[in-house]
From TrEMBL:
Keywords: Hydrolase, Signal. GO terms for biological process: proteolysis. This is Alpha/beta fold hydrolase. The lineage of its organism: Bacteria, Pseudomonadati, Bacteroidota, Cytophagia, Cytophagales. It comes from Salmonirosea aquatica. Residues 1-20 form the signal peptide. GO terms for molecular function: peptidase activity. Transmembrane segments: none annotated. PROSITE patterns: PROKAR_LIPOPROTEIN. Belongs to the peptidase S33 family. Residues 54-319 form the AB hydrolase-1 domain. SUPFAM superfamilies: alpha/beta-Hydrolases (SSF53474). Gene3D superfamilies: alpha/beta hydrolase (3.40.50.1820).
Length: 332
């Protein structure tokens, strides 16, 4: 018995020595939790922990998810850490959230705390925002408030708007061009009869215009067309359909009131951090003309542009390798 105990001790000692000699693992796998105003929001940090750069992915929606896009963003983790943050009432976030908190100002506050939490966990790391769609609105809200630009090293804008009025006018123009090109007289008649102006953007029925854009091919690509993605989503993601797809009803005020007031155009001249404009040029959801208008507003920021000729609203799905290179080039 004593001999067995000595042998076991010797084996354990060898294992400890082997572990001690092993180089540190190069990749980070950690989960942080942000609790604020009733929301419990997870932040999954993945990627190269030897890097001093963190890409904070600001997902779209509203009410979408972060980790379900890791399937297409994982290539970024070779050279940087990527923080996948589920916003309040989105993805797998939980808690007892008052729908009255679903306002741009609150999302901006949440983002600020997410950035502080990452900086506390990874002192000295530079934070880069990678914002898509609705996430772009949140990023402009955050960066045009107070001294928040000092907290981040750069912003990558992926098919997102800075102004509701500018956006809806661009969607209507995109749909009208497509209706004429495709010979869809019903769509053309409706869109001709419903022009969008800065004066009527707050009151016009935007949903019929948006629906026509989709019917005319504004974003025909779906995540769920990829069988490998579906397997990954089911078995290698914290998200569930039950969690992700039950959030929409909470955003009625956002769609009817809050988003219609969104106008950051006059403030973009104050942006001085580097901005990358990454656009799928076929997109009808947020047409490339919105990107062109964004660039004109950024008069004091260093701006780089990358266009994805074969992509719609989510270029990281349709041109994944090119998108990965563009993001890593930006943060380098």
């Amino acid at each position: 018995m004593k001999t067995f105990s000595k042998l076991l001790s010797f084996v354990l000692l060898l294992m400890l020595l082997a572990c001690g000699d092993r180089d540190p693992q190069p990749f980070e796998e950690s989960t942080l939790f942000l609790r604020n105003k009733g929301a419990d929001m997870p932040i999954w940090v993945k990627g190269n922990r030897a890097s001093d750069k963190i890409i904070l992915y600001v997902h779209g929606g509203p009410g979408d998810c972060a980790m379900c896009y890791r399937y297409h963003l994982k290539g970024l983790e070779t050279e940087a850490m990527v923080a996948y943050w589920d916003q309040r009432v989105a993805g797998t976030s939980s808690g007892k959230v008052d729908e009255g908190t679903l306002r741009y100002a609150q999302f901006s506050e949440d983002m600020g705390y997410a950035i502080k939490l990452l900086k506390k966990q990874y002192p000295g790391a530079k934070i880069y925002l990678l914002a898509h769609s609705f996430g772009v609105e949140l990023s402009w809200q955050y960066l045009t408030s107070g001294t928040h630009q000092q907290e981040v090293a750069g912003l990558m804008v992926v098919n997102g708007m800075f102004s509701f009025a500018n956006w809806l006018a661009a969607v209507r123009e995109w749909a009208l061009r497509e209706a004429q090109k495709q010979g869809n007289t019903e769509a053309e008649t409706y869109l001709q009869a419903h022009p969008v102006t800065p004066e009527n953007a707050a009151t016009i029925e935007w949903e019929p215009i948006y629906r026509w854009m989709y019917k005319l091919g504004g974003n025909p690509v779906s995540l769920y067309d990829d069988g490998k993605y579906l397997i990954n989503y089911a078995f290698n993601s914290p998200n569930t359909a039950l969690a992700q797809f039950t959030h929409g009803k909470a955003y009625s005020y956002y769609g009817n009131v809050e988003s219609r007031r969104f106008e950051k155009g006059p403030f973009l001249k104050d942006i001085r951090i580097p901005v990358g404009l990454f656009w799928g040029v076929k997109d009808g959801v947020v047409p490339v003309e919105v990107g062109e208008a964004t660039k004109k507003m950024l008069t004091n920021a260093p701006v780089t542009e990358v266009r994805f000729a074969e992509s719609w609203h989510e270029p990281f799905i349709t041109e994944t390798d090119k998108f990965t290179r563009a993001v890593l080039d930006f943060v380098r």
